[in-house]
């Protein structure tokens, strides 16, 4: 049932995929990693259909199967970032940076969510909050993982220009 739902999802038959993913979860017999993956796919289906409320429901439901995964924390961070709720977004991205990828799992992981992506996004959140030093620190942490990523390099230049101007202002006002 889970794999059939995946096929439907891959062919953008989201309504039918939703039916089968939900049936799969209702059996309560799936492997925990497949249940977590089904929650992610359900969130993707509902997001594609423009139903963010239902998408969010399945992100939270993923927490019922195991401790939070960085992929789902990043999803929540993105959700709140899009709504300009920067403190809430930062909370979820920060949580993603604190998690350890399960070593005893055979599930699939989005490596970026466990390494550089939450740091990049924390840089964005903190920049919007006017906390430029903290934004720069997280962008630099992202740069340790992906030193040539265009978004990381763009943010580095942007934040350095702000911090430089701020430093110059403080020096001339003293």
From TrEMBL:
Keywords: TPR repeat. InterPro entries: TPR-like_helical_dom_sf, TPR_rpt. SMART domains: TPR. The keyword Transcription regulation does not apply. It comes from the Bacteria. TPR repeats lie at residues 116-149. The keyword Heme does not apply. This is Tetratricopeptide repeat protein. It comes from Geobacillus proteiniphilus.
